[in-house]
Amino acid sequence: MIKNGGETFSVNSFEKEVLPKRQDPETDKETWNKNLSPTNLVAIHITNTFPTDGVVRSHVGWTEHDGRRLKGVRDTIHFTLNHVVVEEHNGIDSKMRGSWHTRNFVVLAPFDKFKKEQIKNLIRQDTFTLGDFEIPQGSRVLIDWKELSLLRDSHVIDNDQMQSIIDQLGVSDNYISTETNPEKEIIVESNGIEYVIANVSDGEFRPYIEKQIKDMGYKFAYPNFNESFFEKYGFQPGRLHEGHPDGKPENLGVVMDNLVPLVFLDWFLLMGTTEYIDRFGNISEGYKYEDRFFTAKESLQEGLKKDYNFLQNISEDLRAKKYLKDRFFQYLFIIREITEVHLGKMGDGKFKDIFGEFKVWLEDFIKKNSIEIELDAEYCVDYLKSICNGYLKKIIEFEQPKSEDSIFHSPASVLLRYVQQFTKLLKSTHISESDRQVFYNFFVQLKDDLESNMQVGRIPDWHLSTIHKVMDTIDLVCE
Fold it and tell me: Where is the composition biased (Basic and acidic residues) (predicted)?
């Protein structure tokens, strides 16, 4: 027995069951689905993180493994079954996720070798397991040839084997810094797992995975689970995201992007100020936003209550709970401090009154629930790094927006709003000088990164004006 993610799993639940042989991949779809069994299923997990030690780690798993703090706080690993999620379901065909440059590794694992009790959701487009996922024997891991050195660094191969592979690929050095695009596919086996090294950078991502599914002897198809399947193999149907440790929306729901008064704070708070008049010419225009602003406040309050209650009801056995609480309490601190800074800048009027009501509500909420919060600057900066690095990557790869509205929601604009809000923390009276320095160092480094990318021409022209605003915002607080 092993302990993983707070639950105990048998080493291989399916071993106790007599499973039918795998169907021929050429079987017609109707017959194939009618006779569906775990042996017919292959699970596909696409990631940008190499599974070291043969383990696919969740966000929580990486934190516990090496201390890294990621943007998410999930403790689940997600798979599709026998297919790749298509664009309309935010799959790899979409612009931001359909490139081998952004998703460097693919794990294809026989479903009948899963730890059955670890499976918490079973649907073809989003099957997920709780805790870290140990890749079973008989699996394949697809690796782009430019990531070859990771196999050596993870001790899957040694230096001699790596040099042999480099020679076979016809590339020039151990750093894989050549523009050569080898056509060969090389398979290395280690501990019952096949590592497939190939060039797919310039090819289509989805067809290559489809080829691997077929090469493993599985049918590339969309499984349709019927009642007899769930009954026969002991699964419950209709468990869409039930038991998902970070709830819905993902990452506890207290995500800055979804909290309108934070992401769009400047837009709402300036409605009753002279800056709004300068921008729109008529203060009376601001009143049509009053209901929208009030609704945003009410939504934020309900969201915070819901998320806190959700946290209280999470089982103590789930290792994600600690990290979810840490994230939630840091959000509370940030929201409280930014609210106070903004109130000090607002002119008198209805919008200041509404925002003041929220501040009173928030203080009462914290007091009533006996919540003790204090800033963990290192935690917040780690979180900010993951966000800003992600948006910088999107800025470099993102296609030119087609409209003004698209520009407002572009990666550069979202990055600007994050910087605008978090730099306000530097003006908080509740932050120590040492914590202030942590944020200061982060923003200075962010500006340096943006400048260096601009100097080498990696920032597209249509993002330059927004990126200059980001740097100007940093200059205002770090000068």
Answer: 14-32
